[in-house]
Amino acid sequence: MRNPWFGRSEPGQEAAVRLFCLPYAGGSAAAYRDWHDLAPRGIQICPLELPGRGGRILEPPMTRLPQLAGALAEVLAPHLDRPFAVFGHSMGGLLAFELTRTLRRRRRPLPAHLFVSATAAPDVPRTRPPVHQASDADVVGELRTLGGTPRELLEDEELMRLMLPTIRADFSVLENYRYSPEPPLPVPLTVLGGADDPLVPVPDLEGWRRQTDGDAGLRLLPGGHFFLRPAGDVMAVIAEVVGIPVPATRTP
């Protein structure tokens, strides 16, 4: 029986490196569907499907980040038998960080590299007003501001009515998060940001350096908060850091 946490298929045995990918607020494993074709041979893309979206749309979504990180740590435990990295965008970046800290507390293997994308450092105070209990119109307005949801979806009332509980749950994950100091991670870290992202300025990205004892790099890419579309530039950074080049013919 297929594990519902893996959006496309469970990790196979052929990869040199597994890249576990975590979605942004309101996103699903489908956000990474193009990455399978972009990734160079040797990197296996493993998008994770959180409850309440995609094929798990009928499951109740989780509303607290420690709950999500703990569940993911258990799900991934059988698949940490080879080098792996974790990538998360926006909410997914914060989740990737807390997942790694959870793995350390449970004495599980740690990622060879952590990629956080369009995510302010965890100890940076959140300044945006909370919306997880706001009106439907305000929640949709926040999605418009973030810019990651196609306009045709935002204007589809039936679809938005189906998705709003999950979107509210994701905003609850972010808005109820409380950073707890722990020793820096012994994991190298790459932070990706959009050069024109008004929501996560460069100083908020630089704060991630406090969270690792390993190498920490910052890469600014063209675009706003959702600079990962198209994903060619992002995949080129990942492949460079992991050490597996992207063939020129596979980069859009």
- The CATH level-2 architecture is identified as 3-Layer(aba) Sandwich
Radius of gyration: 17 Å
Could you say which structural class the secondary elements and strand pairing correspond to? alpha/beta
Strand coverage percent: 5-15%
General form: globular
Number of domains: 1
Q: How many extended strands?
A: 6
Please mark out the parts with pLDDT under 50 across 5 or more consecutive residues, or reply none. Answer: none
Biggest sheet layout: 6 strands, parallel
Arithmetic mean pLDDT: 90
- SSE pattern: EHEHEHEHHHEHEH
Task: Specify the CATH homologous superfamily.
Answer: Alpha/Beta hydrolase fold, catalytic domain
Task: Provide structural commentary.
With 252 residues, the chain is an alpha/beta fold. The chain is 32% helix and 13% strand. The chain contains eight helices and six strands; from the N terminus they run βαβαβαβαααβαβα. Strands 2-1-3-4-5-6 form a six-stranded parallel sheet, sandwiched between helices. The protein is globular and about 45 Å long.
